[in-house]
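Sequence, structure tokens quoted for completeness.
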Amino acid sequence: MSIVTAEIIAIGDELLYGQIMDTNSHWISQELDAVGVRVVRKTTVGDNRTDILTAFEEASKRANLILITGGLGPTQDDLTKPLLAEYFGCEIVEVPEAVAAVSAYFTRRGREMTRLNILQGHLPTCCTYVPNEVGTAPGMWFEQKGCYWMSMPGVPHEMKKLVKDFVLPKLSQVFDLPVIYHKLIKTAGIGESWLADLIKDWENALPNHIRLAYLPSLGHVKLRLTAFGEDKKVLATEVDEQIHGVLPLISSYVYGYDEETLETAIGKLLKNAGKTLALAESCSGGYISHLITTVPGSSNYLRGTLVPYHNDLKEQLLGVSSATLMQHGAVSEETVREMATGIKKLFGADFGLASSGIAGPDGGSPDKPVGTVWIACAGPDFVEAKLLQLTQDRMINIQLTGVAVLNLLRICFLKHNK
């Protein structure tokens, strides 16, 4: 069974200008991956004859399947159809069935069809007409130059219907598709290079048909295991065996798998144990509370939150002593310990979380530069605090603080609830 490769070509100046985000290519990649087709290149090209023809030629050398979106409108700047006809050396002629479908589309909506709309029912003689039931621009399927090609409108809902109804069933007819199986291991609290060093021997021993990729993001590193073969159940078992082998090395950093988020994992821990949580957020400004409340059912374990930005509120509401604030400042281990303990007591929660720091871009000092953040977790009989030394970017600092606070809760929960 050979590997089936694909290239996605997105056409339109608006994509290059940043006026429209190319969500089509992302969605198509997911659909192709699910059926075992490997996307090897995504190309974005503007409304330029030479550039489009060059993209066609280069794609034909790289991939077995080429999926094209955009450029099928009725105006002169829509070049995809005439350039496909030019590339394959065929004429564009009226296809009565296609014209009738466009006409019916306008009739259903009580609108008059123009001459330009009629031209959307004119297609290259070398393509197979693929009806577009939710729009006016038909799909076009080509089997040329050793490749299979599909041209579709750039309108997302039109493209998706064509992929679901025509492209995916067609692929199973023209290709002997392999199986690709993915599994994500999600970690927090460790950087990519440190993680790679921990598991290098395990990674080097992976079988040839199982590959590992590191997918870092703010505060997280995802390990993606991808297995190639013919039987999904067999691949899933093999990947699970590999995960079982690596977990002893990284289990303290692993919070979940696949679509699970850190806030979802925290929610499960609290809900299953019947424990509750309260937060006092200074520098994170409610961001951590936002993450927690994105999880359905969070009202079962979240008691409440405060954003005590001003020191007076830290004193009056959370019981942070004026002596602590005077001697150590708001951004200090001593202050966040008292904040975490105070919010836990105030809301009658099992756990209290606190953050206080200098998010930036102003407010730093030589002793406490921008990016200095203290976080704390208070439990039934403990308080643990941690210093974060982050970046110069305010939003990045807020996001990293959110991940770090939730991960601190996870670590404390597992440590003290054995």
